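Researcher: Sequence recovery benchmark, item below. Answer with residues only.
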């Protein structure tokens, strides 16, 4: 996480890097030779997702394995971040790692322990098919060290389609200001417009960080967002404080959110939208990522297109003019650059040909705008993919890029304190004071 600042300061270098020009950490020009034995037709992959997701991932590799003769061995690990560090640092790295956050990958880039993608992928061809901006999350000192193999889209607003349409409300607000007007209209009809739940055990507050990131990106644009995340500007910059205040107009105004501040902090995030379904909705709107479909009631999931509608969280009038998308994803990094088998697997994993079986199973989005959308199981998922594909800019979840002491520490707890009554300035000041010196020095 500490090297994320260095990575983001170089995001202006969007061209194809010169693989022999010494742009990589430590002046890499060739390959990192970790992983298993070269040429043995076995490729090991370590990742964080398990269960049904692991099964869908492995199903998406079957045809490739049969055609290539390569045996791909996937190992899931819920403590991936710790395990991959231990393995790489002890000389027992997998051939490929699937990183749920970029920070760990960038740390390995700084240590010359992962291969830059220009040594085994066609950079220009890859970049031309990806959602704009995705590769920047894996850039370190001008060079990219990983490529996405799964996409998460967070800039979605969900609503119960039958009730929303019966109310005659707008499904295409053109700006955040327009969305605020819709909020007022719904509240005027005697129903809380927004469903919001942040409770997540020790991680309570992370939902709130997504809201702030969403608003910073829209009010001030991707350049300021990058500067904020990398600490080129302080966390308590006046523009960030203004973003807190803007969110407060929605979240802290009486009647806007079901249950008010107490309800927000006590409602499990996975149950946020449950009150929206039924003949008399208690709330209507939820801003959450595409993965939220897996938390909806079973009868809603079984008939998603009929029961749920979505629209993109809109731009801020007077702010960034384009449509920005906040999200995340899993980024594949190669530890065994001298193994043709491992490189072949990486080329497949990061292509628009990967993931058909996973897409059909549900819960997966391709990072490629050229992916065959007929693989998605319903129109709602296809709409999510289209929202991502048509974005003018994509930015990775900011808290995942900040040092962990902040991103999954004081930013989370700070949001809880803010929702409990702390001022925007007080909250931003406290988070700024917690920014670790090691991360500051790395930039």
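Model:
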């Amino acid at each position: 996480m500490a090297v994320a600042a260095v990575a983001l300061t170089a995001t202006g270098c969007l061209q194809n890097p010169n693989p022999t020009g010494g742009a990589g950490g430590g002046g890499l020009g060739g390959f990192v030779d970790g992983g298993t034995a070269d040429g043995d037709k076995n490729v090991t992959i370590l990742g964080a997702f398990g269960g049904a997701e692991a099964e869908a991932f492995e199903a998406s590799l079957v045809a490739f394995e049969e055609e290539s003769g390569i045996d791909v061995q996937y190992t899931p690990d819920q403590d991936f971040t710790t395990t991959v560090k231990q393995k790489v640092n002890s000389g027992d790295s997998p051939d490929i790692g699937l990183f749920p956050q970029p920070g760990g990958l960038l740390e390995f880039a700084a240590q010359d322990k992962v291969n830059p993608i220009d040594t085994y992928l066609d950079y220009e061809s890859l970049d031309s098919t990806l959602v704009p901006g995705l590769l920047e999350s894996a850039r370190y000192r001008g060079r990219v060290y990983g490529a996405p193999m799964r996409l998460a889209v967070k800039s979605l607003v969900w609503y119960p389609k039958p009730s929303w349409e019966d109310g005659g409300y707008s499904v295409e607000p053109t700006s955040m200001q327009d969305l605020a007007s819709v909020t007022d209209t719904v509240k005027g009809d005697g129903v809380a417009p927004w469903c919001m739940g942040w409770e997540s055990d020790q991680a309570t507050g992370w939902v709130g960080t997504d809201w702030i990131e969403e608003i910073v990106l829209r009010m001030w644009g991707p350049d300021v967002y990058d500067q904020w995340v990398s600490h080129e500007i302080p966390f308590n910059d006046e523009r960030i404080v203004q973003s807190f205040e803007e969110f407060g107009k929605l979240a802290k105004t009486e009647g806007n959110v079901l249950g008010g501040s107490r309800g927000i902090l006590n409602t499990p995030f996975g149950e946020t939208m449950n009150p929206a379904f039924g003949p008399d909705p208690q709330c209507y709107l939820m801003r959450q990522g595409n993965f939220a479909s897996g938390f909806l009631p079973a009868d809603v999931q079984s008939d998603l297109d009929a029961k749920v509608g979505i629209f993109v969280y809109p731009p801020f009038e007077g702010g960034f003019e384009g449509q920005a998308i906040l999200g995340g994803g899993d980024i594949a990094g190669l530890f065994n650059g001298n193994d043709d088998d491992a490189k072949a697997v990486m080329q497949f994993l990061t292509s628009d040909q990967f993931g058909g079986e996973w897409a059909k199973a549900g819960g997966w989005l391709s990072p490629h705008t050229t992916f065959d959308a007929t693989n998605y199981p319903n129109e709602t998922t296809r709409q999510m993919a289209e929202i991502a594909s048509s974005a003018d800019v994509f930015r990775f979840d900011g808290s995942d890029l900040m040092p962990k002491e902040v991103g999954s520490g004081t930013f989370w707890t700070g949001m809880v304190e803010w929702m409990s009554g702390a001022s925007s300035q007080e909250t931003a000041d406290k988070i700024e004071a917690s920014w670790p010196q090691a991360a500051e020095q790395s930039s």
